[in-house]
């Protein structure tokens, strides 16, 4: 019905989380009607991100520079390191400026079911950062799922020989809850009440 | 916190209808994590639309060709013309292939309050199309608002001297309802029960 170009744009937008076919059509209509104020700025922004996209070789964050903006931010505390499963979790914690230190993205969680082993995650590089020294506290911010907690235990075993305080997010996360879906209040509370790993 | 490029993309997306700041962040995360399957296709699609965007000089539709795909579609009935206020209304009616004829987009509705006069709308060009002949029926598909109905009356007066059947969408549209927000069932029913303008 619409032109192939407009159909393709509608389809590309409808694959974004939170946008179904109907809202994608509405978004496309908005874009084509507001060329100067909507379409062109989005195109420019998308193009700039596409040109500069990089995975941080230090922490695993996705950003437009390597090392990423968090790893190079001089206002952050080098001595605190927060370990998360996914980039989405880093963004969730960083969104409300909840954690003032650095991050480490594992790229997943251990899973017997899905065949995810320690070598599949950025665990050796985490241990390397801890072994290099200068870190006082490692916060394990895994999801409150069985696999997340298994991953946290495994990392705790790998790190316990180093002189760092090892903490995890307070229970208070809803059981089975995925970090990335929590509101900032819950995240802030869980972070405030973080406790040493037993 | 995020890089300026990623912030700019988040902001550009959050201005789309249906996407707030939170879902825009989630969409950006999806885009940067799925470069090949999400970001690049969206960039390509957006770029193609931006390069080809055109307002149809016949009907006022926005498309990637001029005349638009609806005006050039040989399967459509030249003798039926559906007049709508906005491109959004054309898309709403066209979405479910409800109307098999051609369209005419006025670009708004008469409004004393907002100072919108007949000359501000594509009414002369509509009368021109009708005067040129070959049209049997003109369907006035204005919104069921005071201004939409005023616009319909004005157009009816301008067109009544021509040998066309002049119809309007059945009442059955919710009072104050905007065409673009109605479900397809309601639109289909209103179109089926269209009646001659009194
Ligand atoms: Zn980094
Ligand atoms: Zn057209």
UniProtKB/TrEMBL annotation, chains A, B:
SMART domains given in the database record: TOPRIM
CDD domains: TOPRIM_recR (cd01025)
Superkingdom as given in the UniProt entry: Bacteria
InterPro entries found in the cross-reference section: DNA_Rcmb_RecR (IPR000093), Rcmb_RecR (IPR023627), Rcmb_RecR_Znf (IPR015967), TOPRIM_dom (IPR006171), TOPRIM_RecR (IPR034137)
Zinc finger (C4-type): 56-71
Keyword DNA-binding attributed: no
Toprim domain sequence ranges: 79-174
This protein's UniProt keywords: DNA damage, DNA recombination, DNA repair, Metal-binding, Zinc, Zinc-finger
Coiled coil location: none
Keyword set includes Zinc: yes
UniProt record similarity statement: Belongs to the RecR family.
PANTHER family per UniProt: RECOMBINATION PROTEIN RECR
Function: May play a role in DNA repair. It seems to be involved in an RecBC-independent recombinational process of DNA repair. It may act with RecF and RecO.
Listed name of the protein: Recombination protein RecR
Organism annotation: Sphingomonas hankookensis
Gene: recR
């Amino acid at each position: 019905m619409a032109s192939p170009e407009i159909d393709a744009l509608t389809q590309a937008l409808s694959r974004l989380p939170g946008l179904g076919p109907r809202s994608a059509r509405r978004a496309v209509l908005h874009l084509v009607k507001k060329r100067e104020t909507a379409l062109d700025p989005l195109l420019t922004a998308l193009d700039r991100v596409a040109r500069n996209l990089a995975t941080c070789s230090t922490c695993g964050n996705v950003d437009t520079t390597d090392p990423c903006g968090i790893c190079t931010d001089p206002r952050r505390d080098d001595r605190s390191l927060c370990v998360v499963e996914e980039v989405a979790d880093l963004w969730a914690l960083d969104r409300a400026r909840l954690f003032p230190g650095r991050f480490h993205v594992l790229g997943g969680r251990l899973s017997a079911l899905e065949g995810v082993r320690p070598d599949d995650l950025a665990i050796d590089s985490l241990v390397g950062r801890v072994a290099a020294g200068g870190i006082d506290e490692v916060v394990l911010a895994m999801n409150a799922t069985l696999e997340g907690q298994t991953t946290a235990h495994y990392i705790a075993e790998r790190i316990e020989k180093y002189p760092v305080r090892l903490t995890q997010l307070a229970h208070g996360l809803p059981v089975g809850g995925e970090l990335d879906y929590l509101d900032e209040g819950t995240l802030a509370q869980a972070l405030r009440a973080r406790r040493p790993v037993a």
